[in-house]
Amino acid sequence: MASSSFYIERQPTASRMVTLLLPVVSIFFALLLGAIVLLAAGHDPLAVYRAMFNGAFGSTNGLAETLVKTIPLLLAALGVSIAFRMLLWNIGAEGQLHLGAIFATGTALYLLPSAPSYVIIPAMVLAGFIGGALWGLVPGVLRAYFKVNEIITSLMLNYVAILLSEYLVHGPWKNPQGFGFPGTASFPEAAWLPRLLPTRVHLGLLFGIVAALVLFVILRRTVWGYEIRVIGENERAARYAGMNIARNILLVMALSGGLAGIAGMSEVSGIAHQLQRNLSPGYGYTAIIVAWLAKLNPWVIVLVSFLFAGLLVGGDQLQVSMGLPAAIAPMLQGTILFFLLGGEVLARYRIRLRAPERQTTTSGPE
Amino acid sequence: MDTLIISILAAAIGAATAILYACLGEILCERAGVLNLGVEGMMLMGALSGFAVTFWTASPLLGALAAMLVGGLMSLIHALLTVTLRANQVVSGLALTLFGSGLSAFLGQPLVGQPPSASFTRFSIPLLGDIPLLGPILFRQDLLTYGTYLLVPFLWFLLFRTRPGLNLRAVGESPATTDAMGLSVVGLRYLYVFLGGVLAGLGGAYISIAYNPGWAENMTAGRGWIAIALVIFATWNPARAAIGAYLFGGVEALQFRLQGTGAALSPFFLSMLPYIFTILVLVIATRETARRRIGAPAALGLPYFREDRS
């Protein structure tokens, strides 16, 4: 029984090297584990990964599609990140994205159908932001004034939002000339976001970069950003310092939802030019992983969104080229997050071996 | 009483079973001080493995066992990350849900749309099934639903009337005290996180091999999250969890009945009902627990550091 047990000791600060390497190492191990799953399912993991990489980054077309998918991921992840900063677990980005798309669609088709481009596009961005913000405010108000757990309410609202958009495209907003297919009529061309032809990359990319810049400035250069960070670090201290917690919850949830709403707006205005079913393959959920992987840093989120968009495009390509389910992408995403979480321990803590003879003083496990 | 009402109530009991198993599992887990938001992911993997094993062996019993094992194994990932490595419980649980839905969609692709080769079927319990009113509602169900009738009182008794139950509550309220008593905080937490996963897996399997036999991507449709909300409604008490689950079963049964009759309300709005109902129930339950000062287990969500003990 002379076994030495290990214990975990906290380090005051994570070493910078480990912090930087961690996401890379997490991705590597996730790919390794994914390879084992692929092998077990009877596929050649190297061939699969090569096909995914080539699909996402190997050609101009693939690269452009990766940028296209970067846009909603980036905007939603930025939204998620600002809430997470305050330890507000908004996991309703998926629903907020749908509401943004619904509001933008309403603006393009019913509110300003004949307005010129320079009116209609800003109006759609605003509408998308408002739609997402309102949807984010529901869990925000419930949390701020009734202390209701925002994780569950924001998630429940995802299902409600998706059903609401299904209702619209099957019912009142259904295109009468759509041959019975669910979906709204096409937007007037003035409501289309300009594209970088010949690709599908659209102006939403700029929205994403601007949003990252705005968040960076808010967090680093404003009193509000300072309050958000203090509340996230220590809510009690923030309250003693006289910060208004409830108001900050509302503002952050509105901004968080609003950014996801713009993601939805840019999807309908930049890609589909209509509201249709299956608007999002779970961008709102992937955004959570992106935000956490990027340690909530706006600029790192830009980079990680691009990589994860590549993962999504690569997954889609697999379906086309090898007939494999695209669900391999979300599976890898979850795995990456596991390794990152486990790895963070290595960054913040040091695992030490306890000498056997010292075991008599404390009762170790076993 | 009207046969229509009886059939709706009977359907409500069946619809409640999956949520109830998952909710009971999460109660055990949270009572031990670990918040596991991975219920939806564990249920999906349970649903898939339950259906797959039933499909291959034609034995729903084996399917249920496989689902319990898979659910338990999934939960051990969460236990490793949060109990041993002390990672953030919220993020780890979310990761488990995302992982579970991705993995089940990937592995389940070949099984989509396959007809089930066997499933749990309803049978009437002799004598009990003939009781007027209660018989047709409660005692003409399937084996897994009958299982909840035994599990709820058993867990209630375990939790509030036995030594192991006291230890379980202690580790969630004050792990330092539990540690000082000479019990292993890590061991207890692993055990109950695992049992939580086992029950979530079984809840998922109930959907795929009893309630709605078959496999489809994301077929649990948020029931794992509803189960987590119900834990708060239940104030971490198995008996109240049953009440909450039947309430939800009622909403779901009513929704299907209304859809069947072609009600004026769009089916999309009817499908929203359980989710909106969850939010309402959560608001009411939160106010209620605050008023009556029944809080969550004191150490819920917090990792335990022995060296911090004071």
Element pattern of chain A in H and E = EHHHHHHHHHHHHHE
Question: Helical proportion of chain B?
Answer: over 70%
What profile does the largest beta sheet of chain A have? 2 strands, antiparallel
Q: Which residues of chain A sit in consecutive blocks of at least 5 with pLDDT less than 50?
A: 358-366
Q: Indicate the mean pLDDT of chain B.
A: 90
For the report, how would you describe the main beta sheet of chain B?
none
End-to-end distance of chain A: 10 Å
User: How many whole angstroms does the radius of gyration of chain B measure?
Assistant: 19 Å
Distance between the termini of chain B: 61 Å
Q: Unreliable stretches of chain B, pLDDT < 50, 5 or more residues?
A: none
Supply database-style keywords.
heterodimer; A: 366 residues; mainly alpha; two-stranded antiparallel sheet; 13 helices; 2 strands; globular; disordered C terminus; B: 310 residues; 12 helices
Give structural notes:
Chain A has a two-stranded antiparallel sheet. Chain A has helices at residues 16-40, 45-57, 60-85, 93-111, 117-146, 150-170, 204-221, 223-233, 235-240, 245-272, 283-293, 298-321, 328-348, and strands spanning 6-10, 349-353. Chain A is 69% helix and 3% strand. The longest helix of chain A is centred in the middle third of the chain and has 30 residues, at 117-146. Chain A is mostly helical and 366 residues long. Chain B has 310 residues and is mainly α. Chain B is built from 12 helices and no strands. Chain B is globular, with a radius of gyration of 19 Å.
Mind sketching the topology for me?
The complex is a heterodimer of chains A (366) and B (310).
Chain A: E1 6-10, H1 16-40, H2 45-57, H3 60-85, H4 93-111, H5 117-146, H6 150-170, H7 204-221, H8 223-233, H9 235-240, H10 245-272, H11 283-293, H12 298-321, H13 328-348, E2 349-353
Helix pairs in contact in A: 1-13, 2-3, 2-12, 3-7, 3-10, 3-11, 3-12, 4-5, 4-6, 4-10, 4-11, 5-6, 5-10, 7-8, 7-10, 7-12, 11-12, 11-13, 12-13
Chain B: H1 3-31, H2 39-57, H3 60-84, H4 89-108, H5 134-138, H6 143-161, H7 163-173, H8 175-180, H9 185-211, H10 223-233, H11 238-260, H12 267-291
Helix pairs in contact in B: 1-6, 1-9, 1-10, 1-11, 2-3, 2-4, 2-9, 2-10, 3-4, 3-9, 6-7, 6-11, 10-11, 10-12, 11-12
